[in-house]
Amino acid sequence: MSPFRRRRRTVAERTEVAPPPRRRVVDEEVVAPPRRRPPRLWPWLLLLLLLVLAGLGALYFLSQADEDKETVPAVVGLSVDDATERLTADGFRTVVERRASVRPRGRVFAQRPGGGSQLDEGEAVTILVSRGRELVTVPSVERLRVEEAESRLRQANLTARRRGVFSEQPVGVVVAQDPRGGERVARDTTVRINVSKGTGRVAVPDVVGQQAAAAGANLRKVGLRPRVFNVPSPEPEGTVVAQNPLPGGELAKGDFVRINVSTGEPAGGGTDTGTDTGTTGGVAGARRVSVPETVGQSLNAAQDRLQRARLVARVDFVPSQEPAGRVVAQNPVAGTSVRPGASVRLNVSEGPAPGTRMAVPDVVGLREQEARRELTASGFRVRVLREPTPDPAEEGVVVRQEPQAGRRAPRGAQITIYVGEPVA
Asked: What's the number of domains the chain is made of?
């Protein structure tokens, strides 16, 4: 063996050859994902099945229950007897409750339960039956101030309606009411209260010496009406030479004042062409008339007789056992000599069984039909007489009434209204 090889071998022998590094093998654990279980459907299906079965059971139960129930009939509007009979015939008991209602008395205005409801046979149905409108007592408000009167009526659930009238009572005081205090009326009834406008009297102005047209205008300005008489006089034609009542006296508004107007002719050369039915007394020099007998006559006959005599009938109703509407006294008495246009007071019997006394409403100044309605609504009868008037504006208008406004008369008594008509 060559030395070279020997030395190489020697060197190789002396050289430490490191062993090759060992490979480190790490075993990795591979975890497989869990398998997803399929959802369990059978519990839900079972629950759904149970619900369906429960619903079917309930439906069956209800259908069976309805077969044992009856339908409640509708009885609103029937009388209480008819409603009870109808409910009894259908197998129900009836419970009746009576209450105030605007429905007619004895009519069913509500029911519980309503018509069409289902109830077991023998169950109760409540019906509400009208006992008519609720009644309240009218408070007495006469002689009270109008504000207090209206307040008391409101507290009693009533409605006040004012009517102004002339009266001796102070202005604003209630002098009469209808219905009267103490009466029982339906709730919300209207109570008419007559409220004083004062006496309504005015002072008579002095128109002597004025022309007829100016005198008439001055009288109307204060609420009075002229009644013209043409008389012979040396004063210029158309001049007022006398009047009645005299200046300074008092008259109610709407009363007449007689004025004598000169014809411009000397005494004895003219005629009295006027008609006086509205004032008391007369004018100096006017012819006089005798008061006719009216006692024992009917009111209508007495009024007609006085009107023909050119006298004014003033009416008062008084207690008496004589038949209603008969004249039982008069003043002045029959045969008394008075001037044309004088007033004659007639006391007229209320009758043995008079109605409730109440104040006569004021209808002077109203048209005839309106006055009729007002008096009729107040419970009076109406008679119409015609009264000549020179004022065209008074045609068809009430110029006077008897009894006068504010006086008391029994319900159902006759009120006479004098309606103006043009002088022919």
From this structure: 3
